[in-house]
Structure formats: C-alpha cells, structure tokens
Design goal:
87% of the residues lie in helices and 0% in strands. With 93 residues, the chain is mostly helical. The chain has one domain.
C-alpha cells in the first residue's frame, strides 16, 4: 500500500512543482521591476532543487541530491550578488 502511495504522491508533487516553476518563469519574464525578477529567479532555483530531490526519491538514486545541493548553493550566491547589485549598483566593493 505504501509504495503506490509514494509513487503517486511523488508524481503529484512533481506536477505541482512544474506548475510553480511555470508561474515563476512567467513572473521572471513579465515582472514589472527588477526586484520581482530576482525574487522569481530565487523561487525558480528553489523549486528546481526540490524537483530534483523528489525525482531522486522517486527513482531511488542518490546522484540527484548532490545536484540539488549544487543548484541551491549557486542559486544562493546568484541571489545575493543580484540583490547587492540592485541595492548598490556594484557587486565587488
């Protein structure tokens, strides 16, 4: 009973994450301000990392967890650099 429930739950989670990524991509392309675009990019990388984690759980492979960690680290650095650029106009002082 638990294996089919886990498979269906992972499938539903993946579909909802893809829908959330679509909404984030729409906001990133259509956002009225640069701050909205940075926030949408932030939500996109978080959703992509969670999508990889769910895919790793679904397939039983551990390689996806390292990729999700790498996406999260690079996304954090990118968000920090873009935020600093929007606040001060330069990244490196």
């Amino acid at each position: 009973m638990s294996a089919p429930l886990l498979a269906w739950s992972a499938l539903v989670a993946q579909l909802l994450l893809v829908a959330a990524m679509g909404c984030g991509a729409y906001r990133m392309l259509r956002g009225p301000r640069a701050q909205d675009r940075v926030l949408a990019l932030d939500s996109l990388y978080v959703n992509a990392a969670i999508l990889l984690l769910v895919f790793g759980i679904r397939t039983g492979s551990t390689h996806y967890f390292g990729a999700a960690l790498l996406i999260t680290l690079l996304g954090f650095v990118a968000t920090t650099a873009l935020s600093k650029f929007l606040m001060r106009g330069e990244v490196i002082e």
